[in-house]
Amino acid sequence: MLERGQIGQTFLDWPTEQTFLTPSFTGNGFGATDLNAVHPETSPAFSLGVDYPTGPQYAKYLRSVVKHFRVPVLDDTEVTAVSRHELGFEIQCARGPVVTRSMVWAGGEFHQPLDPRISGSGLTDPARTPEAWEPREGRVLVIGGYESGIDIAGHHVEQGAHVTIVDRSTPWDARTGSDPSFRLTPRSRTRLKAAEATGRLTLVDAHVGGVKRDGDEWVASLDNGTRVRVDSRPIAATGYGPGLGPVGHLFERRPDGWPELDEDDQSTIAPGLFLSGPAIRHGGLKFCFVYKFRQRFAHIARVIGERAGKDTGALEAWRAAGMLTDDLSCCGVECAC
Ligand SMILES: Cc1cc2nc3c(=O)[nH]c(=O)nc-3n(C[C@H](O)[C@H](O)[C@H](O)COP(=O)(O)OP(=O)(O)OC[C@H]3O[C@@H](n4cnc5c(N)ncnc54)[C@H](O)[C@@H]3O)c2cc1C
């Protein structure tokens, strides 16, 4: 495994105030594997003693998994380029070239925040940065009202600021479906209610067209003809891209821009290259939480193992633990109540 930083680098880079939205709880013994676990025999709630880990706490859990299962990881080894090779792929990294038959890209999305497509986007602070979480006085604008937007808005309301969230798709209103990829998580809904109860949160159904500096203030023009004046740089909580970095050219794109995958999460134009992580999309299914994309770890491992002529029977233990989905038609089931 090649890692450009340290194990769990993304989580080490999370703003210190940010915590998981998905709760951890050790139900493993009864077949309900901790939602944030990456291996069926582990539980972040058990090893960390918390239910909503911070970034550094989760990185600690990941380090313990790597240590326990003796996963070989090369730290400080950034992959800078990947090309096709007669044997599979040639990977360029800080420690020299590596040739491999199969490759799994698990580079995550956090390193590819999507800037808002507006004039003056350079005047905004992306929600992933520590600056966006620093205490702010007076009026604050958050562009984007899904999980990250509600999270950071809740944080600033708790600190006493008056926060306006602007989002044309009004994710705070989504009432249909039980999939958290399309509806705010319970944690975010609870924070939203608490923030609204202070009277210091305003939700606006509109699209921000542009941001300008006006003396000591920042002014956002909305497509409903109104303006929002605030006392600090607007915060952009406008999502993340697929983060494919050096393998971007080895994936076809769907019409919505996400990578096209076959039923084994493999590139449709570069067989042997698999995608793992939150960028996986199959039809309308999004795998953007750990408990979703972990369902595919054992499947990808089995496909690679079988091609190499290995016995992959032990991977069935993942199915028994509810951590292996190879039939995607069973995902997306709605809850009755
Ligand atoms: C703000 C935010 C909050 C989230 N909250 C939750 C949550 O509460 N619950 C949940 O289940 N999911 C959550 N997610 C989803 C999140 O994507 C996953 O939790 C998780 O980070 C994805 O794991 P990953 O291993 O695929 O990617 P990452 O954790 O991002 O890991 C990717 C790793 O690849 C390394 N890397 C990247 N490029 C290179 C390269 N070129 N060479 C070598 N190494 C490289 C990085 O350094 C990093 O360590 C959240 C996502 C975001 C952005």
From TrEMBL:
Gene3D superfamilies: FAD/NAD(P)-binding domain. The keyword Oxidoreductase applies. Keywords: Oxidoreductase. Pfam families: Pyr_redox_3. Transmembrane segments: none annotated. InterPro entries: Auxin_biosynth/cation_transpt, FAD/NAD-bd_sf. This is NAD(P)-binding domain-containing protein. It comes from Microbacterium marinilacus. The lineage of its organism: Bacteria, Bacillati, Actinomycetota, Actinomycetes, Micrococcales.
